[in-house]
Specification:
There is one protein chain. The chain has helices at residues 14-27, 46-56, 67-81, 89-101, 113-117, 121-139, 142-154, 159-166, 177-185, 194-197, 200-205, 211-219, 224-233, 236-250, 262-268, 284-290, 296-299, 310-314, 318-326, 329-332, 339-351, 357-374; strands at 6-9, 32-38, 59-65, 106-108, 254-256, 392-394. By secondary structure, it is an alpha/beta fold. The protein has three domains: 6-119 and 231-299, HUPs (Rossmann fold, 3-Layer(aba) Sandwich); 121-189 and 208-229, no CATH class; 310-387, no CATH class. It has a six-stranded mixed β-sheet with strand order 5-4-1-2-3-6, with helices on both faces. The longest helix has 19 residues, at 121-139. The chain is globular and about 60 Å long.
Length: 395
């Protein structure tokens, strides 16, 4: 129920599509939906959002975000978040919120379903990884495991194969949850990599990045899936909600999260694992519940997770521009990051021997955050040139 104009952020994924379909069913009138995508079709979910909008007969609006405006907006959005942007999707979220503000003042979103109904692939992957890790440890001496780990990390493998192996029990330490889960799925720089990246001065003041997350993990109980969900609800989800609140309010839109209604969250906490995960896919119970409201190809399509053409953009001349930015004298003179480490990160990404896209994203955002929030540089002056098309709104 709403006394003001109401809309739904619609990505075309299961969560937002479920919220849109149920909103239409409950309100019994035409609703407004809003989507964001990119000119690069491979990284855009707009076609799925259009399919859902057509199915529920919503008044649909969409916007395409170009590379130029994506990069130019980073300092401004970092100012709004008051911290480096963790996810490139923050940018898309701001622009779709700005589009929505032209039509409504309140939007519903699908946030929270993944953390309560085990939607992320990392849950199924960790359950499988844990079973295989126990078997691996039972038959393999610790010295041999360390040898295998070092061999994989130094082997001349393709960046794709390297990335996949680094997510497995062969590289991650099953005895340390911080390595097995948080290094594996959350950090751009694992704890073991920080001594190579940070200067001695920075290392001396660096805190434990996993303190809050590990605190939530240690308070959790139940089976492994329940513990992961509890931990993420009390750590990772908080960051997502902050991102959503700050980006929507930057556009003067209020966002609400139906999946996090307290009664629904309490219900999901009691769902047995077999009703959440089937194979490597999650949210099984939600998928079955939505079969009569949404097209089957929407309910069971592979999760994309708000994709951004970041990796594609880094394959062009933008990579050189970002490296020069991070190695400017003003950046190096702060004595936070080792210049040789930054040079190596870009060289490995450029040669495709390692996928360093996530690390480059974090370094760029930290640099812009420092310039804007610590050094007081105006956001317009800190903007990064994206040399590409601008945003286009389609209604």
């Amino acid at each position: 129920m709403s006394e003001v104009p109401l809309g739904v952020f619609l990505s075309g994924g299961l969560d937002s599509s479920a919220v849109a379909a149920l909103t239409k069913k409950i309100r019994r009138d035409r609703i407004q939906t809003f989507s964001v995508g990119y000119g690069e079709e491979k990284f855009s979910e707009l076609r799925y959002a259009r399919e859902v909008a057509k199915h529920i007969q919503s008044e649909h609006h969409e916007i395409r975000l170009g590379r130029g405006e994506f990069f130019a907006s980073l300092p401004k959005l970092i100012w709004h978040e008051d911290e480096p942007l963790v996810w490139p999707s923050s940018v898309a979220l701001y622009f779709v919120a700005r589009l929505a503000r032209e039509h409504v003042t309140v939007v519903l979103t699908g946030e929270g379903s993944d953390e309560t109904l085990a939607g992320y692939t990392r849950y199924a992957w960790t359950l499988m990884n844990s079973r295989m890790d126990r078997a691996y440890r039972a038959v393999t001496p610790d010295a041999l495991r360390r040898l295998v780990r070092r061999g994989i990390q130094k082997a001349p493998l393709s960046s794709s194969l390297q990335r996949k192996l680094e997510h497995t029990f062969l590289v991650r330490d099953g005895n340390a949850w911080s390595s097995f889960y948080y290094d594996n799925f959350f950090s751009a720089f694992a704890a073991s990599e920080q001594s190579d990246l940070l200067t001695p001065q920075a290392l001396a003041i660096a805190g434990n990045a996993y303190a809050n997350s590990m605190g939530a993990w240690e308070r959790s109980h139940g089976d492994l899936l329940q513990r992961m969900l509890y931990s993420d609800i009390n750590s990772y989800l908080i960051e997502l909600l902050m991102k959503q609140d700050q980006m929507s309010m930057a556009a003067s839109v209020e966002s609400r999260v139906p999946f996090l209604d307290h009664a629904l969250v309490e219900f999901t906490a009691a769902i047995p694992a077999q009703y959440s995960i089937r194979g490597m896919a999650g949210k099984f119970i939600l998928k079955q519940a939505m079969e009569d409201l949404l097209p089957r190809e929407i309910v069971y399509r592979k999760k994309m997770g708000f994709p951004t053409p970041w990796e594609y953009w880094l394959a062009g001349p933008q990579l050189d521009d970002l490296e020069r930015l991070l190695l400017e004298p003003r950046s190096i003179e702060r004595h936070l990051f080792r210049p040789e480490a930054i040079t190596r990160i870009f060289a490995e990404h450029r040669s495709r021997s390692r996928d360093r896209g996530n690390q480059i994203w974090r370094l760029l955002n930290f640099e812009l955050w420092f310039r804007v929030m610590i050094e007081g540089e105006p956001t317009e002056a800190a903007a990064v040139c994206g040399n590409s098309s601008q945003t286009v709104a389609l209604t």
